[in-house]
């Protein structure tokens, strides 16, 4: 195995985590979503980056 | 002032709908993901033993100019898609829901309405693009070698203009159709059309906005801002102003 | 004094005229109902008067000036289905539209608070609009129409979509508004028009078919109903009445008949003469007041 430079990857993981956290917090606080909430929760958690983005664009009701 | 009232309300909407968090993050990721992948690619291939026995893994490390251009390449595809999604209901959504009728019953100038919305989205997109490209430039420097900051700045300004051009196309299409899906489809179709025309008739249309990314690429390698690049910048600015003007005029004539 | 003078107002969409050659005036301080069935061109008319749909032909004079300035500054408009930015609070939205109407932030905030109290939304002003009920949204809609103290308030079907309680709230609010502004509202419900308006404009297939004060309309109309009751139902009553020239239609009702007549003055004499010669035991002769509904039906069916 090769050395992983964690300092290099840390920012990527941090923003990914922020994106996920923001999406989940918003999902809890929001009244209604397009489609069931739990589906969006699953999508956000299991599809990294793309999941939360899909939720922000298509899941949120204005 | 009426313009700033609309601009501020638009900004407030971006804050409440969390766009001011997720859009910059997404552009940040677009900005750095190719550099990181490229950096680790040879090592990953090595480690997984994907190459046949005896074959040498020899992927040359790209020069810094090419590395930074990878960020722009991501903006050119995924970035454009995100911008299309952000702008597809900017005006069309208000036309569809009926808020537009209520806003229009106030003494709102069409030009204020269109340009304030345009400026608000442009601010969000350019700020996010700045963050993404800055991150890309930083990773380029530590992974692939030094690239002067003015390279980054010029690339930001010139390619940023291309993103503004796309936002303006989307705004213009917004005034024609009420269905957001239709707006998205047509905006992306139009920008693809501009690029196809440019690649077919590129020798004649040296000032076409479709050349911007290739001119930026050339600039990153050579450091020279060519006459064609200035011409393209000029054409793009003129087209942006023309499309905004057209959008205002279409909206003025639009029957609810 | 006339607040608005409309002359020859016409609107065509794709060559099809939906509003045809309307001419009328709105007197200052009156409440005018624009009455007509669905599809009569009410909304298009109101949008033109509110200044954001352009007439195909005709002129609108406001406050005795030909319109060179933006009329929208002086008019408050409530769309038929008001929609808001529902992620904003009621207060935020009112301040926003106030600023769009060239009020400063401070002016708009004061005015918004004043109006929220007036329409009874004070307790809900910090709530997101998406939590509002239909009646609350309608009242917020009226509040936003009043934000710039308009001289003319235009309301498109303000009560049609509301439940009885919401309807009552809004009608009371309109009665209150009548005191200091001119109101023009559209409706297809006759009771609402009768209840709050001083004058009527009757629109049908885009044409103005009747206009004037409520009382005058009733006078103008010579057709009407007469109710006749007898202690003993006379033989051949209906066939005898049918022979009279002024009678158009006969309907038996309980101990008597209801007749629709073409000319009230002639019918009165003819019927009473017949009753006297036949010595029918008449117990009731009632000339029914022509209701708005009768006028409406007559105009629409003619």
Helices and strands, with pairings:
The complex is a heterotrimer of chains A (62), B (256) and C (302).
Chain A: H1 6-29, H2 37-46, H3 50-59
Helix pairs in contact in A: 1-2, 1-3, 2-3
Chain B: H1 2-16, H2 19-48, H3 64-87, H4 92-97, H5 99-104, H6 110-144, H7 149-174, H8 180-200, H9 212-222, H10 227-253
Helix pairs in contact in B: 1-6, 2-3, 2-6, 3-6, 3-7, 3-8, 3-9, 6-7, 6-10, 7-8, 7-9, 7-10
Chain C: E1 2-13, E2 16-27, E3 31-35, H1 42-50, E4 57-62, E5 65-66, E6 75-78, H2 90-100, H3 105-118, H4 134-145, E7 152-156, H5 164-177, E8 182-187, H6 190-196, E9 199-204, E10 207-213, H7 214-220, E11 224-230, H8 237-242, E12 247-253, E13 256-261, H9 264-278, E14 282-288, H10 292-301
Helix pairs in contact in C: 2-3, 4-5
Overall structural domain count of chain A: 1
Q: Write down how many β-strands of chain B occur, each being a DSSP E stretch of 2 or more residues.
A: 0
The low-confidence parts of chain A are none
**Assembly state here?**
heterotrimer
Mean pLDDT of chain A: 89
Outline the biggest β-sheet of chain A: none
- Strand percentage of chain B: under 5%
Number of helices of chain A: 3
Mean pLDDT across all residues of chain B, rounded? Answer: 92
Radius of gyration of chain B: 21 Å
Largest interface, counted with CB-CB under 8 A? B-C, 21 and 30 residues
Radius of gyration of chain A: 14 Å
């Amino acid at each position: 195995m090769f050395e992983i430079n964690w300092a290099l990857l840390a920012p990527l993981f941090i923003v990914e985590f922020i994106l996920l956290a923001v999406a989940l917090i918003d999902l809890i606080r929001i009244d209604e979503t397009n489609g069931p909430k739990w589906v969006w929760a699953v999508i956000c958690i299991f599809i990294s980056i793309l999941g939360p983005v899909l939720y922000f664009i298509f899941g949120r009701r204005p | 002032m009426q313009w700033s009232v609309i601009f501020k309300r638009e900004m407030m909407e971006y804050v409440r709908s969390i766009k001011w968090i997720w859009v910059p993050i997404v552009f940040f990721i677009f900005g750095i993901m190719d550099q990181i992948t490229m950096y680790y690619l040879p090592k990953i291939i090595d480690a997984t033993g994907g190459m046949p026995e005896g074959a040498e893994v020899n992927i040359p490390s790209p020069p810094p100019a090419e590395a930074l251009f990878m960020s722009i390449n991501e903006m050119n595809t995924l970035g454009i898609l995100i911008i299309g999604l952000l702008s597809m209901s900017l005006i069309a959504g208000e036309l569809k829901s009926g808020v537009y009728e209520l806003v229009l019953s106030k003494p709102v100038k069409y030009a204020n309405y269109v340009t304030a919305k345009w400026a608000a989205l442009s601010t969000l997109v350019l700020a996010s693009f700045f963050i993404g490209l800055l991150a890309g430039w930083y990773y380029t420097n530590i992974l692939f070698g030094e690239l002067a900051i003015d390279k980054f700045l010029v690339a930001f300004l010139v390619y940023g203009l291309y993103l503004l051009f796309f936002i303006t196309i989307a705004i213009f299409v917004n005034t024609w159709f009420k269905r957001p899906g239709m707006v998205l489809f047509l905006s992306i179709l139009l920008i693809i059309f501009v690029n196809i025309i440019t690649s077919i008739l590129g020798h004649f249309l040296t000032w076409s906005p479709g050349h911007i990314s290739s001119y930026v690429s050339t600039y990153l390698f050579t450091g020279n801002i060519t006459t064609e690049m200035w011409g393209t910048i000029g054409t793009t600015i003129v087209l942006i102003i023309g499309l905004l003007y057209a959008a205002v005029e279409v909206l003025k004539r639009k029957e609810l | 004094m006339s607040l608005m003078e409309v002359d020859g107002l016409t609107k065509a969409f794709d060559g099809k005229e939906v509003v045809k050659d309307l001419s009328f005036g709105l007197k200052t301080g009156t409440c005018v109902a624009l009455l007509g069935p669905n599809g009569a061109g009410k909304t298009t008319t109101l949008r033109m008067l509110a200044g954001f749909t352009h007439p195909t032909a005709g002129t609108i004079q406001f406050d005795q000036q030909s319109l060179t300035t933006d009329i929208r500054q002086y008019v408050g408009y409530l769309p038929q289905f008001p929609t808001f930015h529902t992620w904003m609070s009621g207060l935020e939205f009112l301040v926003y539209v106030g600023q769009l109407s060239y009020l400063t932030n401070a002016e708009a905030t004061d005015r918004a608070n004043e109006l929220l109290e007036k329409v009874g939304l004070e307790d809900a002003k910090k709530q997101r609009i998406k939590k509002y009920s239909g009646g609350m949204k309608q009242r917020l809609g009226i509040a936003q129409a009043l934000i710039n103290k308009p001289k003319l308030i235009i309301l498109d079907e303000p009560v049609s979509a509301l439940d009885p309680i919401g309807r009552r709230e809004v009608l009371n609010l309109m009665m209150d508004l009548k005191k200091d502004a001119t109101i023009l509202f559209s409706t297809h419900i006759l009771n609402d028009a009768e209840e709050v308006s001083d004058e009527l404009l009757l629109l049908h297939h885009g044409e103005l078919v009747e206009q004037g004060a409520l009382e005058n309309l009733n006078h103008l109309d010579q057709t009407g109903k007469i109710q006749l009751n007898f202690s003993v139902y006379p033989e051949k009553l209906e066939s005898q009445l049918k022979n009279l020239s002024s009678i158009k239609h006969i309907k038996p009702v309980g101990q008597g008949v209801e007749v629709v007549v073409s000319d009230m003055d002639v019918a009165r004499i003819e019927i009473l003469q017949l009753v006297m010669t036949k010595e029918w035991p008449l117990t009731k002769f009632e000339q029914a007041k022509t209701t708005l509904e009768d006028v409406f039906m007559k105009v629409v069916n003619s």
